[in-house]
Specification:
- This protein is mainly α.
- It is built from five helices and no strands.
- It folds into two domains: 37 residues; 107 residues, no CATH class.
- The chain is 91% helix and 0% strand.
C-alpha cells in the first residue's frame, strides 16, 4: 500500500510542478507582451539615461576634440564608448538593466543599442561641425588676403 501512496503522491507532485511551470511560463510571456506594448515608455526611460550619459561623457572626453575640430582616434573613441556604456548601465541600475536585457533579448543586443546611440550622437556633433566650418572660413579669408 505504501508504494501506491508514494506513486500517488509523486503523480500529484508532478502535476503540480507542471501546473506551476505553465503558470510561470504564461506570466513570463505576458510580461514580454507588456514590454512590447509599452515599448515607447521603456524607450523614453532609456533615452533619458542615454542622453544624460552622453552629456557627461561628451563634456568629459569629447568636447575638447570637438572644439579643435578633431575626431577621437581609435583607442580614445573605444575608451569613450566603453565609458559611455558603463555610465548608462550604472545610471539605469540592475533592475532596469535586467528589464532592457529581457526587452532586447540579451545583454549583447542591449549593449549594441547603447553603443549605436553613442556612435550616432558622436557623428552628429554640431560643435565639431561648427569648428570645422569656422576653420574653413578662416582659411578662405586668409587665402583672399
Amino acid at each position: 500500500m505504501s508504494i501506491e501512496l508514494t506513486m500517488l503522491f509523486l503523480c500529484i507532485l508532478g502535476l503540480n510542478g507542471s501546473a506551476l511551470y505553465l503558470y510561470f511560463r504564461h506570466k513570463k510571456s505576458q510580461h514580454c507582451l507588456n514590454q512590447i506594448i509599452n515599448f515607447s515608455s521603456y524607450y523614453a526611460v532609456l533615452e533619458y539615461h542615454l542622453s544624460r550619459a552622453y552629456e557627461i561623457i561628451y563634456k568629459d572626453r569629447v568636447l575638447i576634440y570637438s572644439l579643435e575640430a578633431v575626431k577621437l582616434d581609435g583607442p580614445e573613441f573605444i575608451a569613450a564608448t566603453k565609458a559611455f556604456g558603463n555610465l548608462v548601465l550604472r545610471m539605469i541600475g540592475p533592475n532596469l538593466k535586467h528589464e532592457f536585457m529581457e526587452l532586447y533579448g540579451n545583454e549583447d543586443t542591449f549593449l549594441f543599442i547603447i553603443t549605436e546611440y553613442f556612435n550616432q550622437k558622436y557623428e552628429e556633433d554640431e560643435i565639431r561641425k561648427g569648428s570645422i566650418e569656422e576653420m574653413q572660413n578662416k582659411e578662405v579669408d586668409d587665402a583672399d588676403k
